[in-house]
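Appendix B, example 12.
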Amino acid sequence: MKIFANFENREATLTMVEAFSMECIMALDEPTVAEFARMMNISAPNAAYRVGQLVQKGYVEKIQSKTDQREYHLRPTQKFINYFNINTSYIDTICERCKDKFSEEDYNKLVELLSVIDNELMPELHLERFKSR
């Protein structure tokens, strides 16, 4: 009973699906719910449910469109930005460790390979295809 009593008051955490959802929202730069649904390849009701969970946990806010009052854009909150920065900080640490561990030539090759993977080998992540036309 004591263990479960703490769940109600504990800090909301992100599940893996929620973390991935937030990464997509960040990548799309304030998408609509429809754009988010398209990128995640999920139905509009499923997207609305996921967004609702993220709003409830305080990681995203819905901003009403100035041009179309029926439409809302998804914006990460400062709470998520803080969470994101912790992860980014760890990636920076790993990059520094790679610089220390590998020769300059090997490190530069690693950076080059990761750049090719990111820019050329993952066409399904080209974000422009998910944004409204």
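DSSP finds six helices and two strands in the chain. The mean pLDDT is 86.
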